[in-house]
Amino acid sequence: MKNLFKLSIALVFIFTTYTSCNNSKSSDSKSGALADNVAEKVYVAPGEHDEFYAFISGGFSGQLSVYGLPSGRLFKVIPVFSQDAEKAYGYNEETKPMLNTSHGFVPWDDAHHPDISQTNGVVDGRWVFINGNNTPRIAKIDLTTFETTEIIEVPNSAGNHSSSFVTENSEYVVAGTRFSVPIPQKDMPIKDYKGNFKGSLTFISVEPEHGHMDIKFQLIMPGFDYDLAHPGRGVSHGWFFFSTYNSEEASTLMEVNASQNDKDFIAAINWKKIEEYVNNGGGTMMPTNYAHNVYDESTHMATSTMKKEVRVVNPSEVPGAVYLLPTPKSPHGCDVDPTGEYIVGNGKLSANLTVHSFTKMLDAIENKKFAGDAYGIPIINFEDVLAGVVEQPGLGPLHTEFDDKGNAYTTFFISSEVVKWKVGTWEVLDRQPCYYSVGHLMIPGGNSQKPWGKYVVAMNKITKDRYLPTGPEVTQSAQLYDISGDKMELLLDFPTIGEPHYAAGCPADLIKPRSKKIFNLEDNNHPYVAKSEMDTKVVRDGKTVHVYMTTIRSHFAPDNIEGIKVGDKVYFHITNLEQDYDVPHGVSMIGANTSELLIMPGQTETFLWEPKQVGVWPFYCTDFCSALHQEMQGYVRVSPENSDTPLKWSLGEDIE
Amino acid sequence: MKKSNIIMLLAAILPLGLFLFPLWKITLEAPQYPTPLGMYIHINDFSDANPHDIKNINLMNHYVGMKYIPEAIPEFKIFPLGIIITSVIGLLIAFKGNYKWFLGWFILMIALSAAGMYDFYLWEHDYGHNLDPKAIMKFTNPDGTQMGFQPPLFGSKDILNFRAHSYPQLGALFLALGIATSFIAFLIGKKIHKKSMTM
User: Fold this and answer.
1) Closest residue to B55, CB basis, from A579, A627, A628
2) Are A380 and A326 in contact (CB under 8 A)?
3) pLDDT, tens digit (0-9, with 9 covering 90-100), for A632-649
4) Which domains does chain A have, with CATH numbers?
5) Whole-angstrom distance, CA of residue A278 vs CA of residue A577
């Protein structure tokens, strides 16, 4: 009884100190906010521009959003892996091929990790690469048009998660599989996973001029789950690091069975060595089937090509190219500091953060300090590669990025916070709560050799009460912290599209001056372009009708069409003749089983209409283009299938 | 060669700058055009200040029934010829003539420039007033007459939502310098002549 009394006193005491501590903390941050005027730090005056672009993935929305920092304002949602009725992406004839795969048309994906192209280890703002997780694909977004211009499917992969990260001169964009699968795919019992399933790590070369992607080789690894990856940089350029879990090679009840080993691995891949092997004819061409979809800005059209083979390499063929670094407890993020010396394994079930040393790794390899091997791949002694441990920084470490002052910032999902620590001394310097359960974080350039360490964006998985409620489904959210001082300071919450999975950012000046205003009409090579109203026409070919139509403020040409019949396939090829910045026109036809078109100046887009009913059916401009927008409309006369109404069209006069 | 003749030579050459630089520029500012629309008038051409400006000026103007700015006008043939002929005359005078001829060339150039400006005014007036009767938007002045959209000959003026500016450019400066220089040649020539008379 006495003891119980003592215990309750002690509990009350602990509770009071805890809450009072909390109180003092929150009042501190409030007075801090008033003192430095937090609002002013994120205020970008009307008409002014933000300092940074942030490309935040939409996760399960399949899209990529473009935000400004520090304001947190949303500028554009770029459709990548999902159909978008607003922009007709995946609906119009031109972009349908972008979503083609070996499984046919797949109109959705799970977009995870955007990464901006780099030159000499510095973010260059030319392209953003992003992975489709579900049906493995890598997309490239051109940052002059902010449009998806290329998507390559990744064969022999499943759950394309440890992707898409670029090497320091954008030599490769790398895509690792999350799920190991039979390679090649075959009908076999799931229980025979162990030893039979394999994980592929795909190195996709990026052509320096236009960024065209091509699979250079796939490394066929043991059947672990490859979770995340980062390239070496500076001293470790030429290497790539992948975190793994499920080194147990379990195939069921993974939350338990893949969490048994005390240590999983970070796989270190010397890709330069494998590249050399491949350049000398190494590897094997394996029959496969995958789609390569390329959008051509001059024809305003995408084409999809099915590729039939891929070069595969087994680690045993290239001795000394692949090593395994033991890393505690199912590491998630695998992050390399700006110097390239330290590789951080964010062991999500561990209480500590494990940091490996690249120099020690080379030394251990040299002196063969191995603890054994897995399927012939040497496992380096844990102690001989370990640089240091950040002790007890929080619970559930997921991802780390870096500033330009030698600090690292790690997210902790379970304890819901960002922790700042010193690279080299491993001491914790500061911590700030996240609302709630943060996943990735992003510092502009924070995964390159040159971070711009002014802000960190934390991307949260849960928001609960942070915003006005919107029923059971509430917004997901990002949070902006000022990291220019010794202590981090929370500046702003802003809602995001889909799930803000990861982001990439860079100074606006890298991209802004190169952003296109219009497409030159003269350079339009679309096969159905009409470059002036003189070129407009309607052409019948059996039951297929091609309408060569133009838009300019504020009319369609032609705007009266007769001679269309029930059962026809009518392709409206619409060229926007405007050559003025920000004057798109839209179009939609009553009953068309597709989305509207939104056509930029100088561009041609096509929608298909299959009239099913006799009548006179209107179409109109869907984008408020001008003062006479409401007058921008037209009619199509649809006659019965067996009628002989002649094909005619006109603008500004009655059809004769 | 006399000093005055050398100056006259310079005067005769300067207007040729019109072949290198635009004569005039008309600029249209409006809130929707953070980069204003602009058109350069060269001695033999109209050109965009920024790509597609003329096309976009035409697009704006068609709402009030103004005609499209033509690709070419007869002046584009007459003006260059006029400048070449007067420059050749100027050169002949510089080599052969005396100060009285300089004055003659000066007066000729003033007269021709004035005629050119008047011609420009007539074109502008027609462009701003000769409107399509089926114009989408018809505006009237407070007194009930049809509103015109003539840009200013020189200076700035508000036209509906636009503020129009019309100012000479480098080519015009070369012409003006040439004309002024011929007058200086005349003054110096006269002075030298007087000196030689008194000697």
Assistant:
1) A579
2) yes
3) 999 999 999 999 999 999
4) 52-210+221-514 (2.130.10.10), 526-650 (2.60.40.420)
5) 48
**Nearby residues of A630 by Cβ (< 8 Å), 6 or more positions away:** none
Most A CBs within 10 A among B56, B62, B134, hence the mutation to make, goes to B56
Alpha helix locations (H) across A436-590?
none
Phi-psi map region of A362: left, alpha, beta (phi>0 left; psi -120 to 50 alpha): alpha
| Block residue for tokens 């609906």 | A91
Amino acid at B166: S
- Bridge partners, residue A85, by sequence: none
Cα–Cα distance for residue pair A415/A400, rounded to 1 Å: 15
Name the residue among A313, A311, A323, A330 with its Cα closest to residue A376. A323
CA distance A277 to A314: 11
Report the residue of chain A nearest B53, measured CA to CA: A580
Rounded-to-integer distance, Cα B69 and Cα B67, Å: 6
Q: Is the per-residue pLDDT at A589 higher than 70?
A: yes
Distances (CA, A) of A69 to A44, A53, A66, A454, B167: 9, 6, 10, 10, 41
Interface contact A522, partner B, CB < 8 A = no
- Whether the CA torsion A368, A373, A377, A379 is positive or negative: it is negative
| A395 vs A111: CA distance, rounded Å | 26
Predicted ipTM of the assembly:
0.87
Closest CA to B102 of B195, B23, B180, B17: B180
Q: Does B100 touch chain A (CB under 8 A)?
A: no
In this predicted structure, the answer to whether residue A176 has a pLDDT above a threshold of 90 is yes
The tens digit of pLDDT for each residue in A135-162 reads 999 999 999 999 999 999 999 999 999 9
Distances (CA, A) of A273 to A140, A270, A313, B16: 26, 6, 12, 66
The Cα–Cα gap between A132 and A531 comes to: 37
Instruction: State pTM to two decimals.
Output: 0.92
Can you tell me the distance from the alpha carbon of B106 to that of B84, in angstroms, rounded to the nearest whole number? 15
**Which residues have a Cβ under 8 Å from the Cβ of A360 and sit 6 or more positions away?**
A384, A385, A386, A387
Q: How far is CA A409 from the centre of its chain?
A: 21
Distance CA A98, CA A291 (A): 9
Closest alpha carbon to B117 in B160, B35, B175, B186: B175
Residue B133, SS3 per DSSP? coil
pLDDT value at A5 more than 90: no
Nearest to A401 by CA among A342, A473, A470: A342
Q: Nearest CB to B56: which of A580, A627, A628?
A: A580
Whether the CB-CB separation of A416 and A437 falls below 8 Å is answered with yes
Rounded Cα–Cα distance for residues A8 and A564 (Å): 86
